[in-house]
Amino acid sequence: EMELFPLSQITGNAFADVQETDRDALAMALYMTEKLIGQLDPDDDEIGEITHILHNALISDSNAHVLDIITEVLSVCVTNVSALLMESTP
Residue 15's pLDDT is what? Predict the structure, then answer.
């Protein structure tokens, strides 16, 4: 595990280095995004680290795959919270 700020910086730089046809570099940047999101603690106001990568991520990937990753993670979180709420309801 790495501290969030350096990981956010490295991930943003990874997206900045992606060329239009370099799918390997894009895959690495997206992998780093998954790692970054996986380390976030929403209770600690760490979600802002995602905003640091969005500029380069959206410019370098015309298909905006980073948004798909964020949506996936949020969907899993909502599902988990819903399940917890259902368990705690009498």
Answer: 94
